[in-house]
Amino acid sequence: MDERLRFVARLLDGEKMAVLCRQFDISRKTGYKIFSRYKACGMEGLTDRSRRPYRQANQLPFQVETLIVQLKREHPSWGAPKIREKIRRLHTEISLPAISTVHAVLDRNGLVNRTGRRAHYFAEGTQLSRPTQPNELWCADYKGEFMLADRRYCYPLTITDFASRYLLGCDALENTRGEYAFAVFERAFKEFGLPLAIRTDNGIPFASRTAFFGLSRLSVWWLRLGISIERIEPGQPQQNGRHERMHLTLKKEATKPPAKNFLQQQGKFDRFMDCYNNQRPHQALNMKYPAEVYRPSARVYAGLEELEYPFHDRTILVTSCGRICIGRRKINLSCVFAGQRVGIKEVSEKIWLVSFMKYDLGFFDEECGRVECAPNPFAAKVLPMSPV
After folding, report:
1. Angle subtended at Cα 116 by Cα 112 and Cα 122, rounded to the nearest 5 degrees
2. Whole-angstrom Cα distance, residue 377 to residue 359?
3. Does 364 share its domain with 329?
4. 3-class DSSP state of 93
5. Reported confidence tier of residue 388, pLDDT bands at 50, 70, 90
6. How many CB atoms lie within 10 A of CB 161?
7. Considering the domain boundaries, does residue 325 fall inside one?
């Protein structure tokens, strides 16, 4: 996306299409396609498009899906097994869908009574560190959204180094969706290396209300990279005070007045970052520039290694819908672990423990179809009082 963004930005500055296409080593047909997508969809038109096929060979025929929904509405108390059996008796020529497929259709159409769902996670803070060296702790947050001149809202995602106050990233985003945050952090990791920990609040996409211990896909990715997570307590922004103070300066110098569009606003952010890191003396640093104190991390970003659990009974890949499948059994875990490997270990008779990396997530038995949460390993620890 970065290359497309630079391509469009230079076009908007008045450079010629043919010259730019030669410099970016693309055909003019591709150049005009990129520019037309930008004019039609804005920044979103520059992102990678899905390569998902329009038609899937194993997709359930819409007539069968309509029949499932119709039967459910005629018999609201029936579940997926009864509906599947009814279809088998009514239409012997139909290739019967699996019970789980029938249930998925009902769920997709809002016809599943979700009783007994896992309680929402109540946000809480974790243990907070006070490091003194660069890259021991990064801080991240979204500065409050503001409206651009084209009446679209901008959500700046900012990342700073705690010890040096160095501003590692400031990206003008259209929303707070996780995929945009993934791209921003991956670029920061490639450029500056990996920190030991990242401190955030409990908002999306850093945390989730419905997953174990408030984990999100983003925070699970950080854990996989060996990055510890720190969260401030709800309603206590002063626990991330250095980052919030930077936001105040950012608001004064780079958002008032707002730019006309996202490209121009990103340009203002880039100029602010250069000034903040390389030209602005910082009182807390004895009037040094943050760039004079910060050094890139020695921990290089090199992707993810495969997870193994040698001390567990089994290693299982979590499905895309967040389930653990053992034979014909399907145990609900959480979608934030989709595609991750977890360890399963029998800790008592017919009771199994589910672990992710070094963290114990919860337990399930032969009757329960979901994992019950274990004690939160990320909660702030209360130290014993001194006897003195």
Report:
1. 115
2. 7
3. yes
4. coil
5. very low
6. 25
7. yes
- The CA-based angle 77-79-83, given to 5 degrees, is 105
Edge-to-edge strands of the sheet including 314-317?
A: 314-317, 341-348, 351-356, 359-365, 372-373
CA distance between the termini of the chain: 60
335 in the same domain as 229: no
Residue 183 vs residue 367, higher pLDDT: 183
- Whole-model pTM: value is 0.67
Count CB neighbours of 335 within 10 A.
18
Domain that holds residue 146: 138-293
Pair 283, 153 in one domain = yes
Contact 2, 28 (CB under 8 A): no
242: which residues sit within 8 A by CB, 6+ positions away? Answer: 139, 160, 162, 165
Name beta bridge partners: 171.
157
Are 180 and 245 part of one and the same domain?
yes
**Cα 220 from Cα 204, distance rounded (Å):** 13
Q: Note whether 342 and 361 are within 8 A (CB).
A: yes
